[in-house]
Amino acid sequence: MIKNFAILLALAMGSSVFAQVPSPNDIVVTGVSTVPAPKKVQKGYDRLGRSEYECIYKYDVIATKKNGEKIGEEYATILQFNPKVAKFSDMATYRVDSVASIQGMDMELIDNITEARDRSEFFFSGEVYQNYPEGSTTYDDIITPNYAEYEENFAPFEWEITEDSLTVCSYPCIKATCEYGGRKWIAWFTEEIPASYGPWKFSGLPGLIMKVTDSEGVHTFTAKSFAKSDTEIVKVKNVNVQRTTRDKFVSAKNYLEEDPMKRISPESISQIDVFRGGAIRINGVPLIKRKNGYTPIEIK
To answer: Are 269 and 283 in contact (CB under 8 A)?
Structure first.
């Protein structure tokens, strides 16, 4: 799995609300982004601004198979941000959006990298837009055969900051704790990067969150690289998205993922596409294959 993450990292390196908006000299950068920035965005994408920084996180999940066996899963994810907005997504989705949003890009290439993402063994399907719209967080995800979206308040976390310290990705960090989504969380943030963003939906601390894990160690995000960036932050204009509430989303997502093939209503299926590499789309929406079952990040 480490090898897989290293490959994804190599592909990506190539890319707040701020407590106070820092100048470039105020932030210590441990890497340099090398991904060429898309200059033009197609009609199917909204531009949310240019990313000034990006942080790549390794996302570890301890899954429990039906026979009770514990098994580790590893994902590569990325946070793009500027002083006004942040986007968190799977690395494969980041690559798809970066290529597809370039005007005039070859559609065959877009289809190929999209199919590669859809058949990935470990694919974090959610896309999180922090402080978008202003004061809110927008969450987009897949509940096959639909896309779903909901909004909630930006940084809905009641953090308790402690005096404990830890070094993560060469940055000195401070410990903070909270409860959210039915889990207790421990986060480590650095004041050297005064941006109140973090992986997934985690936000609202006086510094970038570099590591966060739940109290049982089931879900863990760990920063592996932080770099300056100049890439477009884009959001797909999905006219077919079903807008809902967080509570309804969590309930529907967790229910479906327990057994997707049995819980997708036959009446809701109008088209099934099976690709040579094994990717499946139902009504144009990816069917995510999880050989170890689904381990929800939010229990409630």
So the answer is: yes
- Contacts of residue 294, defined as CB under 8 A and 6 or more positions apart, other chains included, come to 254, 257, 258
Is residue 219's pLDDT more than 70? Answer: yes
Quote the CA–CA distance of 14 and 10 in Å, as a whole number: 7
Residue with tokens 């837009």: 129
* Weakest-pLDDT range from 13-22, 193-202, 288-297: 13-22
Using CA atoms, how far apart are residues 237 and 161, in angstroms rounded to an integer? 38
Amino acid identity for residue 214 in this structure: D
Phi-psi region of 107 (alpha: psi -120 to 50; beta: other; left: phi over 0): alpha
pLDDT tens digit string along 146-203? 999 999 999 999 999 999 999 999 999 999 999 999 999 999 999 999 999 999 999 9
Q: Please give the mean pLDDT across all residues of the chain.
A: 82
What are 2's two structure tokens? 């480490």
